[in-house]
Design brief:
Order of helices and strands: HEHHHEEHEHHHEHHHEHEEEEEHEHEHEE
CATH superfamily: Glycoside hydrolase/deacetylase
Low-confidence stretches: 381-396
Distance between the termini: 47 Å
CATH topology: TIM Barrel
Structural class: alpha/beta
Number of helices: 15
């Protein structure tokens, strides 16, 4: 075996050495960024290109709010397979309930932050781009009702408010150019080494974390208004969160928290500590961590055979009797800017799901919060014909 393959095999197995165990073949697909407006349209991208705004990554190039065609095509792929219980594949979108209110910001001279709820965002985009967005909000609601999508909390909005407000005060060219194009992307730097500009709960000075409780309380209230139930699972947008926010998350009903196996925990002023986390580990508030042990990013690099690589990761998880928690992003399935981007992502997803069901006929598809509930119960059994949604169960 080549040295590269040996190293890959060691890595795939090592990250499954510790954590909650089950002999069941459980597959969870956790997908970040749903509900978020990053790039408005192809025209907006072209305008920003002319203004010298660079495309730093695929999110800057392709990541748009989910369109009707995005959702229709995704649903067709998810329903193309069934697990041992006759259940289709399901996405757990870590989703946002709020976006920038671009009109209000323009009216007030881009001097302060204004937000809006997601249904209002869809309503505006339906007027501005009816070919793409007519019926998309209803289709997203339909997917939730049918158990194809089980949104969980990814923060109130996908931006760091400290960075946003400071750049507004400085009349930052990149931020103002993005906002005038109804977008928030292609920002070269936040100005802070520990704060990505899209990372809502990152900070420089630890005292800045005191503002996060209010954002979370407001965000979970907005989530319940938008999606129809209170979330029980949290994944921080953009980067790792500090445990200081876990208390307010617990207060608002969050039982499960996404984490990385080896977490770099920012202590403030650029100092970090390392914490080992694993699926099934509980924090001091009795919240359960879920660690994504499989990566599936089919539009990230065309030089990687993502289906083959993801299958190897799932095999490693099952070898060690772990659930396979797949990590992905909405941008893999976005076709508003470039249909080929969506086609590549969904073709790979279809192939992956087909190979999973053929390789493991006893596979079970679950939402992430459903897996969390199973771990919390202490048992390895759930009703065969029910899907946990929020704090209730949706039967179908």
């Amino acid at each position: 075996m080549p040295l590269k393959d040996i190293k890959t095999s060691i890595t795939l197995n090592a990250k499954n050495l510790i954590g909650w165990k089950t002999k069941r073949k459980i597959v969870v697909i956790s997908v970040d960024d749903y509900g978020n407006v990053r790039l408005h349209s192809r025209g907006a991208r072209e305008n920003m290109d002319r203004e010298g705004m660079k495309v730093y990554n695929r999110f800057d190039a392709y990541d748009t709010l989910e369109t009707r065609e995005d959702l229709e095509a995704l649903y067709e792929v998810l329903t193309s397979v069934k697990d041992k219980n006759g259940r289709h594949a399901v996405f757990t979108p870590f989703a946002l309930p709020c976006n920038i209110n671009f009109e209000k910001m323009a009216e007030t001279g881009y001097k302060e932050y204004h937000r809006e709820l997601l249904p209002e965002t869809f309503e505006k985009l339906t007027v501005l781009q009816p070919d793409a967005y007519e019926g998309s909000w209803s289709l997203l609601q339909e997917g939730i009702a049918k158990g194809l999508m089980v949104p969980q909390f990814h923060g109130r909005e996908h931006l760091n408010l400290k960075v946003f407000e400071e750049k507004l005060a400085k009349r930052d060219h990149e931020v103002l150019t993005a906002l005038r194009n109804r977008s928030y992307t292609s920002i070269s730097s936040s100005g802070y080494p520990t704060i990505p500009y899209t990372a809502a709960f990152s900070f420089w000075n630890f005292g800045e974390t005191r503002h996060f409780d209010e954002i979370i309380r407001d965000g979970i209230g907005a989530f319940e208004l938008v999606y129809g139930y209170r979330p029980v699972h949290f994944n921080s947008p953009g980067t790792h969160e500090h445990p200081v926010i876990h208390k307010v998350l617990k207060e608002k009903g969050v039982k499960f928290i996404d984490a990385t196996l080896l977490k770099h925990e920012h202590l403030g002023n650029g100092k970090f500590s390392r914490k080992l986390t694993y699926t099934g580990k509980r924090n001091h508030l009795d919240q359960i961590y879920l660690v994504r042990n499989v990566v599936f990013e089919p539009t990230e690099s065309r030089s990687v055979n993502w289906v083959e690589f993801t299958m190897k990761q799932i095999e490693a998880a099952f070898r060690w009797n772990r659930p396979a928690i797949i990590s992905s992003h909405r941008v893999n399935f976005c076709g508003h800017i470039d249909e080929q981007n969506r086609e590549v992502g969904l073709h790979a997803l279809r192939e992956l799901l087909q190979k999973i069901t053929r390789r493991w006929p006893d596979v079970e598809f679950m939402a992430a919060n459903e897996l969390g509930a199973l771990i919390n119960s202490g048992f390895e059994s759930v009703p065969a014909r029910s899907r946990a949604v929020g704090n209730s169960e949706y039967s179908y």
